[in-house]
Amino acid sequence: MPVDTHTKILATIGPSSATREQLSRLIDAGADAFRVNFSHGTHAEHRERIKIIRALEKEKGRLISILADLQGPKLRVGNFKEDKVLLKEGQKFTLDLDNTPGDETRVCLPHKEIFEALKPGEVLLVNDGYIALKVESCNKKSAVTTVKVGGYISSHKGVNLPNTKLNISAITEKDREDLKFALKNGVDWIGLSFVQKAEDVREIKKMVNGKARVISKLEKPSAIDDLENIIKESDGIMVARGDLGVECPIQVVPVLQKKIVKLCRLYARPVIIATQMLESMIVNPTPTRAEVSDVATAVYDGADAVMLSAETAAGKYPVQAVKMMHSIVKQVEDDPLFFELMNNSRNVPCKATEADAITFAASELAGVLKNVRAIVSYSSSGFTTFLTARERPALPILALSPDIKVARQMVLVWGVKPYVNKESFKKFNNVEDCAVKYVKEAGLAKSGDHIIITAGFPLNVKGRTNMLHTVYVS
Which of 49, 197, 205, 217 is catalytic? Predict the structure, then answer.
């Protein structure tokens, strides 16, 4: 099936999709990129999956992007004596650093950083928010809480602290080892969990050292407090609505989603909408109407990509889930209202640079000049392509880069069809001829059409977008 949508699909690999046959079927169904989730699986398993993807990339003649998603700090309670205990509303329940197995009165919370940050009146949410504990008193070793929302609790359930900023690095020792492995095996994007502030992003970018691009996962309210700075420091953003919906009032999440997408477009950062998009397809062959509307809303908002998690990693119908998501994206993008919304939501570039002006003008020109079939973006770093995609033109964007890693990264960017082009151009006529060759081979233009070229000249010099050119296809 041709890659025929602007909005990309990111599929998570897991037991349901890890074989060569299944990964091939997912690509054919519409998956553009794959997420390798380091919260599960071994390095040996991940290495094999990456190897299969790269082999399929060659076999199918199209670039595929790989996101390595780091686990980040996992805050969990300790062990209980019994399988589970029932916490009743109004009762007292203590959290402490004592490793003794817990009961209905207390349990270990083996994170001293939590006790150092807790204050009376704050709330801890356990088991995805199904249990709520209000702190009555606390010190650096324990906290006495009142159960506000009761229920059963068992060993190792996750803990969320919506109103507490923790002095915990977003990068654990496990993450450091996983990051080394991921970079060694040539992934294109690194997903950073537990981002609370822009400094978290700067820390991992030093470690990555340009070997991949960094996507910050927004899943904590503290990240929203520093949202604009986090977006500026990041190469991309993921709206991780699962944890965000636990730690923030759930009705706020759709509002935050729109705000984040708008800011990401302003700063030309690709943005992924993730979590529970087609959740019911983990066990059912078709989604709910609400889930279809949810995916459609993300596409209408202008997200670069929509993500499938357990639907493709552990679900019964991974291929059907990708096909369904692709059909929703296609339906929305075929709606005349879609590009009207994209055009109406364009921002004037936040910086007055040549690059901003040229890519903004390219989209304007595409709306005026008749028979324009594509925008061809020459970019050695991907910078020009990011800016071109920000404008959400009603045209395919062909990204030509001499660097295969940059080209693979561009797979996740809205509307972009990336290619590796290592030609060295001595005359500008050669640049035109090359662009025409690619759009013809992609089946996007024929004789009598126009294309638009954006680039930095001389070519293959990073950070110089200074040229806008139209070409008549003969």
Answer: 217
d(CA 320, CA 326): 10
Catalytic residue, from 8, 35, 373, 417: name it: 35
CB of 230 within 8 A of CB of 220? no
- d(C-alpha 338, C-alpha 331), whole Å: 10
Kindly compute the dihedral angle of the four CA atoms of residues 70, 74, 79, 82, in this order, to the nearest 10 degrees: -90
Active site residue 47: no
- Please name each of the domains of the chain with its CATH number: 8-73+170-334 (3.20.20.60), 84-160 (2.40.33.10), 346-472 (3.40.1380.20)
Least reliable range by pLDDT among 11-20, 131-140, 279-288, 460-469: 460-469
Catalytic residue list contains 275: yes
Q: What's the N-to-C CA distance of the chain in angstroms? A: 28
Per-residue pLDDT reduced to its tens digit, 301-341: 999 999 999 999 999 999 999 999 999 999 999 999 999 99
Task: Let me know if 297 is a catalytic residue.
Answer: no
Please check whether residue 469 is in contact with residue 453, taking contact to mean a CB–CB distance below 8 angstroms: yes
Reduced to 3 DSSP states, what percent helix, strand and coil does the chain have, rounded to the nearest 5? 40, 25, 40
Give whole-number Cα distances, 395 to 12, 61, 125, 319, in Å.
28, 22, 46, 28
Does residue 391 come out as left (phi exceeding 0), alpha (psi in the -120 to 50 range) or beta? alpha
State yes or no: is 20 an active-site residue: no
Please, are residues 311 and 318 in contact by the beta-carbon 8 Å criterion?
Answer: yes
Ranges of beta strands (E only) in 262-383 are 271-274, 305-308, 372-378
**Residue whose token pair is 């529970």:** 276
Between CA 162 and CA 432 the distance in angstroms is 54
**Residue 448 DSSP SS3:** coil
Nearest-angstrom CA–CA distance, 335 and 93: 54
pLDDT top residue among 29 and 464: 29
Average pLDDT over residues 187-204: 96
Q: What's the pLDDT at 462?
A: 65
Structure tokens at 46: 């991940």
Active-site residue (options: 62, 76, 134, 259): 76
Quick one: tokens of 138? 């606390």
pTM: 0.91
Catalytic residue (one of 7, 275, 359, 454)? 275
Per the structure block, which two tokens stand in for 218?
Answer: 């927004």
Q: How far is CA 318 from the centre of its chain?
A: 19
